Amino acid sequence: MVKLGRCIVFLACMSITAQAAAQSPGDLKGTLIVLNKNGHNASFIDLGSGEMLATLPTGQGPHELIVTDDGRWAIGTDYAGGNSLTVFDVENLEVEKTINLDKYPRPHGILFLPGQEEVIVTSELSSSLVIVNFRTGEVVRTIDTNQNGSHMVAVSEDGRVAYTSNGNSNSVSVIDIPGGQFIKAIDVPKRPEAISTNKSGSEIWVGSNDESVVSIISPQDESVIAQWSGFEWPYRILLTDDERYAIMPDLGNGKLRFFDVVSRTELGSIDLRQASPQGVTLYSDDRTLFLSLSAENKVLVIDIESREVLGEYLTGEAPDGIAYSPLVLRKTIVYQ
């Protein structure tokens, strides 16, 4: 494994040396970016060397994170008290800007729209989706979800339809993005949080915390296509880019569960006990997974097909949202 040493920073910058352990996570290249909820900052980690390249500040309580396909820009939601978006210049290891969302409090779920100039963000307290041009910092428009507690968002690949998980209304909102309007609400098992969709938008994958299930729902006729039980807190749902596998961290049970999307069967799980598995993201090969363990302040590297843990990296305090950038950065700087 690769395990990174902890860093204590006083005023300037310092280099952090990776400590080699028994097994390498493989030939990984690029940069892993991790939001640390309790540290109110983001860790930038070089995957090849295991070095911590930078620790940059965010707003209060950062949660979800996305990165442009070219790896240049990362945007995180400052959910728990921040009411903002933090935009990172990944290439230069800098905070580019902070976008104020005080009018749209508790921003949480975030995804890119086609073209990757605009992001779509849930505002939990205003029951709305907020579309923001992250380059200019302008709020382009808002769309009401007409439900309470809109926490996470999923978007079809063409950017035409969005689905929000509405934890306080036990529903999923269906949103016409180009038309800027709410279409309907679909009743789902209680306290939905995790949500995803396939590229066509023909399936809604939703995790329901109070009823301990994950369901696949048809947005057309609202039927349940498939459902799995035995969850305690199905925290996130991640589909591989080729839509072959679904990976679901079960925060309450301390497990990472793997499913075959085509056959709708569970393939197995990894027991993580009290490590608090939370954020998930994919490496460029679509078969290597990064998983944040909030209680252990680290990220695991996992092979999806073998379900083998390949390595780990240390992070800041209480890591959650994570994202991958293909950029290989050379300088090793830590800011405080």
Give me a quick take on this structure.
The chain is built from no helices and 30 strands. The chain has strands at residues 2-4, 18-20, 31-36, 41-46, 52-57, 62-67, 73-78, 84-89, 94-100, 107-112, 118-123, 128-133, 138-144, 150-155, 161-166, 171-176, 181-187, 192-197, 204-208, 213-217, 224-228, 238-239, 245-250, 255-260, 265-271, 277-282, 288-293, 298-303, 308-314, 319-325.
Termini separation (Å)?
28 Å
**Beta-strand fraction estimate:** over 45%
Number of strands: 30
The CATH architecture comes to 7 Propeller
Whole-angstrom Rg: 19 Å
Q: What is the mean pLDDT? A: 92
Morphology: globular
Order of helices and strands: EEEEEEEEEEEEEEEEEEEEEEEEEEEEEE
Topology:
Blueprint: E1 2-4, E2 18-20, E3 31-36, E4 41-46, E5 52-57, E6 62-67, E7 73-78, E8 84-89, E9 94-100, E10 107-112, E11 118-123, E12 128-133, E13 138-144, E14 150-155, E15 161-166, E16 171-176, E17 181-187, E18 192-197, E19 204-208, E20 213-217, E21 224-228, E22 238-239, E23 245-250, E24 255-260, E25 265-271, E26 277-282, E27 288-293, E28 298-303, E29 308-314, E30 319-325
Antiparallel strand pairs: 1-2, 3-4, 3-30, 4-5, 6-7, 7-8, 8-9, 10-11, 11-12, 12-13, 14-15, 15-16, 16-17, 18-19, 19-20, 20-21, 22-23, 23-24, 24-25, 26-27, 27-28, 28-29
